[in-house]
Amino acid sequence: MPVYQEIARRIGAERMQKYLDLLEYGNRDIGGGIDQFWLTGNLRIDPIQQVDFVDRLRRSALPVSKRSQELVRDILPVTKSGDSIIRAKSGLLGAEVGKPTLGWLVGWAEKGNTSTVFALKPGCSRAAP
Question: pLDDT tens digits for 14-31?
Answer without folding.
Answer: 999 999 999 999 999 999
